[in-house]
Amino acid sequence: CIAKPPALRQASPVLSPSSAVYLMESKSCKGDSLRPAVPCKHSVEKKTMTNPTTVIEIYPDTTEVNDYYLWSIFNFVYLNFCCLGFIALAYSLKVRDKKLLNDLNGAVEDAKTARLFNITSSALATFCIILIFIFLRYPLTDY
C-alpha cells in the first residue's frame, strides 16, 4: 500500500542486490527505511468515510385540519345562497388537496376561508327561509 515517489523509482536500480531482494520480499504497508512512507489513496479514503445514518422525516399531522367537506356539500345542494355554497365547496376541495401535499399552512388558511363561506351561506339562507315563513304566515295585505 506504500507507493514509491517517482524520484526513488529511478534510484532503485542503484541499490545492492541484497537490499533489492529485501524490498521485493517485504510488501508491507509499514514502509521501508530506504524510502519515505507515502500513504496510498485507499487508506485516505477509509479515513474520510463516515458511518451511515438513518434520516426519518416527520411530516406535520394534517388530520387536525378540518376541511368542512360535508357542510360545504350540504350548503351547495340545499342552501346555495348566491353561490356561496359552491365557493365553500371549492375551498374545501383545496384543503383536501393541500393536506395530501403536506402544505399545512395553506390547508389551514383555506379551511378558515371554507368555514367563513359556509357560515355566511348558512346564515343568509336560514335568514331568507325565516323571512319566507314570516311572509307566508303574515302576508303584506294584513298591514
Structural notes for this entry:
By secondary structure, the protein is an all-alpha fold. It has a domain at 68-138. It contains 6 helices and no strands. The protein has helices at 6-11, 17-25, 41-48, 69-77, 84-100, 104-137. The longest helix is centred in the last third of the chain and has 34 residues, at 104-137. The chain is rod-shaped and about 125 Å long. The mean pLDDT is 77.
Tags for this model:
143 residues; mainly alpha; 6 helices; 58% helix; rod-shaped; transmembrane helix; IFM10 protein; transmembrane; IFITM_antiviral_protein
Largest sheet: none
Q: What fraction of residues sit in β-strands?
A: under 5%
- What's the helical proportion of residues? 55-70%
Q: Gap between N and C termini, in Å?
A: 111 Å
- Can you count the beta strands? 0
Can you write the helix and strand succession as a string?
HHHHHH
The gross shape turns out to be: rod-shaped
Oligomeric category: single chain
Q: What integer value in Å does the Rg equal?
A: 41 Å
| Helix count, DSSP H or I runs of 4 or more residues | 6
Structural class: mainly alpha
